[in-house]
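A quick aside before the break. I want you to see a complete sequence-to-structure record at least once, exactly as it would be stored in a machine-readable document. Don't worry about memorizing anything.
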Amino acid sequence: MQHYLAAPLKLQSKFKSQIGEITIANERCRLLQPMTYMNHSGEALHAFCQFYQIEPQAILVVHDELDLAPGQIKLKFNGGHGGHNGLKSIFNCLGSPQFLRLRIGIGHPGHRDDVANYVLHKPFSAQANLITQAIDNAVAIAPLLIAGQTEAAMQQLHTN
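That is the input. The structure line, written in tokens, reads:
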């Protein structure tokens, strides 16, 4: 069952990203999909946040997570980057780790030398189905996040 939130994204070169807007729980939410290399995604996010005057605490970063099994999903506020180059870039550009992260498990290929190739390819069908279900679960908690009910969102997400 896919019930992704649909929002048309348009390329905005000044942000090096595709951007869009969507309404969730009667609140306007801005979406940003950096078109930079992942290890430069912080540059795009920083430009976007400066233009719209968005504080790090109001940001939700959605990213893949090698350390979680495919389809496992975790929501957390603050913390380290765990070696994730995209998060490193965001930390460096925002100057703060104080933002929400939605970590979507993709599993680990088994050996660190295989990681780059692994993350650059589409997941196998069984893994893709698990990841899709995790995204559905994340979409279901979006209204709670928008309402500022982060703890309730975490509880619902982590018990699914």
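Two observations worth writing down. Residues 10-159 form a domain with the Rossmann fold fold (CATH 3.40.50.1470). The chain has five helices and six strands. We'll return to this after the break.
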